[in-house]
Write a structure and sequence with these properties.
By secondary structure, the chain is an all-alpha fold. Among the domains are: about 110 residues; about 80 residues, no CATH class. About 70% of the residues lie in helices and about 0% in strands. It is built from six helices and two strands; from the N terminus they run E-E-H-H-H-H-H-H. Strands 1-2 form a two-stranded antiparallel sheet. A hairpin with a 2-residue loop joins strand 1 and strand 2.
């Protein structure tokens, strides 16, 4: 150790004034040096703090991704449940429609049977009336048949009302039949309206246009198309039968003419055949 070093227990000498120090100008105050890790009075960010900040940001991002994925799964699940509920409703509605159609078919069959019974009773009423006029005793009287027909009419009306109650709620599913081949010939709705208005205004001879419009509208109905087809088939069968009868009559007339020809004409035809041979 050097001898100049202060010993323990000795007082240090006070600092000597600087030669540049004057009473008017104090000595410059020396600021302590900046500590390590500080630049321009600002604390430097250590790598460990940066890593912790990035780790916290990544944690927040992963949480947001998890929340969005969970929300997406919930939305998909809700959409599947809504679609399943809609399918169940549609299936239930379809089943109700089919059940009502089956019941309506049963009612229609019973109405047809009742109508057949009424037609048979009407024919029996005619024969019973004739027998009563001739003084013959019949098993069923006219009054009994009339009462039976009256009862069948009441039942028929009740069946029609029940049929209407079953099918009226499903009227939106019914689509009218239109013949696609006659779309060009059918006038539009505006033309039909103008024709109907002109028909109502013109009293003399205006019913023809109105009837034509009604016929055009009626041909677009499925029932009317079926009736028209059935009438066309019957008309064709009648024409074929008429042609067959006409051919038979013409063949019979020819045979009669050959069998009843005069003998002179017959001999003349035979001589011509011999000359030709």
């Amino acid at each position: 150790m050097s001898s100049d070093a202060p010993r323990r227990g000795e007082f240090l000498s006070p600092p000597q004034p600087s030669p540049f120090q004057t009473p008017d100008k104090p000595a410059a105050i020396i600021k302590p040096a900046a500590s390590r890790g500080k630049v321009l009075g600002k604390t430097l960010i250590s790598p460990s703090s940066t890593h912790s900040t990035s780790t916290s940001g990544g944690a927040h991002g992963s949480d947001a991704d998890r929340d969005s994925l969970a929300n997406l799964r919930i939305a998909v699940h809700q959409a599947k449940e809504a679609a399943a509920t809609c399918r169940k409703e549609v299936s239930a509605q379809r089943d109700r429609v089919f059940d009502d159609l089956e019941r309506a078919e049963t009612i229609i069959l019973s109405l047809l049977d009742r109508a057949s019974e009424v037609a048979h009773a009407l024919s029996e009423m005619t024969s019973a009336k004739l027998s009563a006029g001739q003084g013959k005793a019949d098993s069923t009287s006219f009054d009994e048949l009339a009462a039976k027909i009256r009862g069948d009419g009441v039942g028929y009306l009740a069946g029609v009302k029940k049929l209407h109650q079953l099918l009226a709620p499903h009227a939106s599913f019914v689509k009218t039949y239109r013949n696609q081949e006659e779309d060009d010939t059918i006038a539009p709705d505006n033309a039909d309206k103008t024709e109907s208005t002109d028909a109502t205004k013109n009293v003399n001879g205006a019913s023809g246009k109105l009837s034509d419009a009604i016929i055009k509208k009626a041909t677009s109905n499925m029932y009317a198309a079926r009736v028209e087809k059935r009438l066309a088939l019957e008309r064709s069968a009648i024409l074929k039968e008429m042609i067959r009868l006409e051919e038979l009559e013409s063949a019979g007339d020819a045979r009669d003419m050959v069998g009843t020809s005069p003998p002179g004409i017959k001999r003349k035809h035979e001589s011509l055949e011999e000359d030709l041979l």
